[in-house]
Specification:
It contains three helices and no strands. The chain has 84 residues and is mainly alpha-helical. It has one domain.
């Protein structure tokens, strides 16, 4: 029957879309995790420019903060960076 065939196709399409969504979500999370070192370098560079001296912050502490920020970012599509 044509209706059953179309319903089966629609179910398959939904399964494929869900799988694609999960794969893209995982890839996005991995990209954000890979960005950690770049974020740490950026934060240290910004600190150097703002205070015009070498920051004394421990890079491990900055990395931990960056990791936490990226974890929160993984559920969002926009990023607002504020420098105090």
């Amino acid at each position: 029957d044509g209706v059953e065939s179309k319903e089966a196709e629609a179910r398959e399409a939904v399964v494929r879309m869900a799988s694609l969504h999960d794969a893209l979500k995982a890839e996005r999370s991995q990209v954000l995790l890979d960005a950690e070192s770049v974020v740490v370098d950026l934060a240290m560079s910004m600190a150097r420019r703002v205070v015009r001296v070498e920051p004394v912050a421990d890079a491990r502490v900055v990395a931990r903060i960056a990791r936490e920020a990226l974890r929160h970012l993984s559920d969002r599509s926009n990023l607002l960076l504020k420098v105090h």
